[in-house]
Records
---
Amino acid sequence: MRLATIKLHGAEVAGIVTGKGILPVAALNAYKGTGWKEDMMSLIQANHIPGLTKWYNEGGKEELETIPGVVPNLLHLPAGCSFSPRCAECGAHCGAAVPELREISPGHLVRCANIPEVRHE
């Protein structure tokens, strides 16, 4: 098991490296109802890494690939919208091209073809 620290929403959080990217421990907790510490130092101090490693070795590695919330590898982003693999609103058009950057309100920019203000129907 490989752990990583990533910056997510301005905070440094612990994550588990998967084949698709990095799954934040917070996403694992939300999905499984577990209570692992969510930053690397706290994981170490609370001695949670041995338990997390045991879960990983006993089937967790395979389960990780099915849990939503993976932060994609920035060196290997998917075609089209980079959020498409983890977006509940993803459609066939999302993988076709990177959505155009649009301003939907003053100072609020988006790159999503599924927001009504942006959608071309």
Note: The first strand starts at residue 3 and ends at 8.
---
Amino acid sequence: MNQLSIPCHHLYPAELSSLTPVEEKLIAIGISYCLVTKFHIDPESQKPTNVNYQKLVKGHVTVFANDVVGVSRILPPSIDDVVKQIRVIWVGLNTPKPKDISRLMLVSRNCVSQALLWLKENNLLYKDIEINLEEMRQWQDAED
């Protein structure tokens, strides 16, 4: 994750360990091409069996070279711009309802702020990042 030297996925600091995919996109200085996650609906109960965001999924991914230092100097970007980049593609028999995946799309102003503050203090790539407080004030918080 942006040159952090963390040997195991469960050792992420609290500020980074429970971010949703949208929150991760809001704090990223690099732009990811896509995210693949596994999620399915139980055919009998019609309820999601895994509403947690899985960070480790096997598969093939194409990675494009990206100058992460020159991409973003002010974070987070406009949430409207980020939302325009999100697409959900469902493969399977039982299609989820919006409420089934809504937890994956939540954004907490506090979580994003804490993550950026932690990154500024602990990751050299973030030390000169300006935190866009004005953008975050405009968000309707997930906790509201």
Note: The first strand starts at residue 74 and ends at 75.
---
Amino acid sequence: MYPRSVALMWAIIVCAVCIDIRGLSPEDQHLDSYDPEKEWFTCLDGSATIPMGWVNDGYCDCADGSDEPGTAACSNGKFYCQNIGSIPKTIPSALVDDGLCHCCDGSDENPSLGVVCPNTCALEAASLRVELWNRSLMLADGLNAKDKMMTDSRTIQRALMLRQAEECDEEHSEVSDACHTVHTVLETVGGGDAHLFSMYNKTVERDGVTVCLLVDAKGVIGDREVDLGMYSRVTGHNTLVFSDGAPCGAGGEYSLRVSLVCGRDVRLTRVVHMSSCEFEAELATPTMCDAGDMVETSRLLQMLGGSNTTEEEEEM
């Protein structure tokens, strides 16, 4: 925090154009509330009415932090980086004037306090164009593969239902484990998760962990292979849970949670041994790709001035 006089002077310098308030988006729907020609400012949550001169003065007067869009005074505040030439973003107000540059345009740091941030928006934009272009290619491939996988899902679901009806009403020991798996899959996968059927019984491996999707998982620890559990449920529409694995520690059991993300094919992209008994992994799959993500990626590319990259950017 710094004196009201210093903060107010900075706010006045930044406000060279009417209602150009530091830390506030020029497209904010409440922009008129910050008109410096007005005598009073009413907090956006209606909690208080204060003199307009108290806006961005370094003291938090509104419960919602709306009087300090351009300082770190309010713990719940948000600071808007315009980042002209790149992509605008919002950062926690706690990062404002902390001596570090968080916005590529340097607007989060006050030069009068001795911190001058170089404008790196052109470099950031070039890097983002490459990243977004590569993401658009991945999304295109993923969405194309998703159509076939959705068809496969319906076929596999029908096959599992038929198998359950024909085989799993008999108490034969040789089919009991398989029938338990089929029953669990049919009980836990469906509705918005029906796309998961396309992955049934597919095997993926990475860093010593082998997952038979929707069936079971195993992992190598040291020089031995351990059971990481049987598939048990889906949580949050994007995480497969494998539980009741081999004994681990004092009364514990090994387990694995697999988070699903968009990808051009089905493969494990990350495996982490979280604790002595818990593993986590990330699985890329086309079924998690969404057309809305492609629309948003294209929008961001257009914001950066093009829908493809130059040869120079591709070499970065």
Note: Residues 121-167 form the longest helix (47 residues).
---
Amino acid sequence: MTVIHRIIIGIALLSLALPADAQSYHGEATYYSNRFHGRRTSSGERYHKDSMTCAHRTLPFGTLLRVRNKKNGKEVIVEVTDRGPFRKGTIVDLSLAAAKELDMIHAGVAKVEVTHVDPSEIKLQPMELPVLVEYKPFLPEMKVYDESSGKSYLLSEWKKLVPSNVKMLLMQQQGQKKAQQKEKKKKQTERRAKDKKNMARGK
């Protein structure tokens, strides 16, 4: 074993001996193609493009990593569920959702800093409950036929016309009453005339 090999092995062992939260990795990040959606990863889980996951060559499955895009400073926390990437200079392969969070979809590749995240450091945000909205079924508005005008109106329109409709209805009722009284007087007059005529014949 040469001296160079020993130095390389020593550096590797030293990096493994360092606490996980002290390690940081610098390199490029890529993301999964859509054709990998639904396929099984090295951990046995199926890859989902909307999950916050990634592939790393050596870190244990379930490890949480904070990935920061050096260009725009955006960060995302992902879980290691697969092995890779195997492209030279690339240290992590992100899910599509994670890549969107880092705003690297258009570029395809981004220079990133990757650090280990202790699960105890992650603070769960309180979940906001949805606001319940009273369901009011929509019903078509009824139409009303107005006898006074001979027209059909929507119920809301007809309500606005009620005062004038009532007035017209009262006028019609008064006119009908007068006509009935006139007809009654006419019949009474005719009956009296007939009675007088019959009495005259009887004499």
Note: The beta strands are 24-31, 53-55, 64-69, 75-82, 90-94, 110-117, 143-146, 151-154.
